[in-house]
Amino acid sequence: xDYPGERVARTLARSxxxxxxxxxxxxxxxxxxxxxxxxxxxxxxxxxxxxxDPTPARTTLAFRLGYQLARAGxxxxxxxxxxxxxxxxRGALAAGGSSIAVLAWGLDxxxxxxLQKLRGELARRGMVLSEYPARTPPSLRQYRASGRVxxxxxxxMVIVDGRWPxxxxxxxxxxxxxxxxxxxxxxxxxxxxxxxxGVLLDCGAVSALSGRQVVAAIREAGxxxx
Length: 226
Description:
Elements: E1 10-13, E2 32-37, E3 45-49, H1 56-71, E4 75-79, H2 84-94, E5 99-103, H3 116-125, E6 127-130, H4 140-153, E7 156-159, H5 169-177, E8 181-184, H6 195-202, E9 206-207, H7 211-220
Parallel strand pairs: 3-4, 3-7, 4-5, 5-6, 7-8, 8-9
Antiparallel strand pairs: 1-2, 2-6
Helix pairs in contact: 1-2, 1-7, 2-3, 4-5
């Protein structure tokens, strides 16, 4: 059964009790956010980010990671884009967990092709959030800025794949600036999409091999579930 608030957008100011507390602590939090769903799900929140065009192996891995994170009691956070983000959301939902989707456009704007059903599930079982008011179309600038909200909502971030240099680095940059724990999935040596995780691991990022390991590493870093 659908919950009563489904598809009803709410506006939350920073002063509102339901505004996500952790997001409000970053350097430049949105003055308002527009949300659909049950509100910010409680518990440890883990951002899962990566490319729009993952290999089949990384696609499988992202689904498994989202599934394992949900089974370990974590909430997945990510954009609503094709590729790693969408697959991780689906994995979390398949495990019976919650997930938060951050849009780079207004809540009333159409989502990318093939993601309409996923968006509905996210609104029913988690939260869909945007810092942009209705009728705001997507843009490259907004896509880039969405990384700061994705990391701002989460206690830690996992980089599944990405090019070096490339746009996949932006969310990791925001996470590091915000003091979030950054993890990376090793592997795919020689693949262009394996370059970013390799660089991050060389620079001291924690290796992410399973959802349970990710949750343990973030807790060991001192994060509480706020």
